[in-house]
Amino acid sequence: AGLSTAVGGSVVFLVNSVSDRGMAFTLALAAGVMTSVSTLELLKPILEAGKFWTQQTLWLLVGIASYLLLAMAISQAPTAEQQSLRFVKVKHDDQDEEK
User: Fold this and answer.
1) What does pTM read for this prediction?
2) How many Cβ atoms are within 10 Å of 56's Cβ, its own excluded?
3) Domain boundaries, the chain
4) Which UniProt keywords are given for this protein, alphabetically ordered (predicted)?
5) 56 Cβ partners below 8 Å, 6+ apart?
């Protein structure tokens, strides 16, 4: 693991610039690897547990459901820009005609 980190870090010295597409691919690849490693590390004790696998599987499903609910709630929340615009009074062109 340590050697992999050193090799990955040395790429910074070999590449001068990275495109947005290349950066997105690299970040997606790293996120996928970390997700798969975390999932496999969590599933290994569940499979080795024997008789308590139903309880552990239930909690795993509760965690997944909680994540999905939070993701939906966050995606529907207003952005910081939308929130700040609520406090700014904007003068519209049609307001000039009324005066």
Assistant:
1) 0.45
2) 15
3) 2-80
4) Membrane, Transmembrane, Transmembrane helix
5) 45, 46, 49
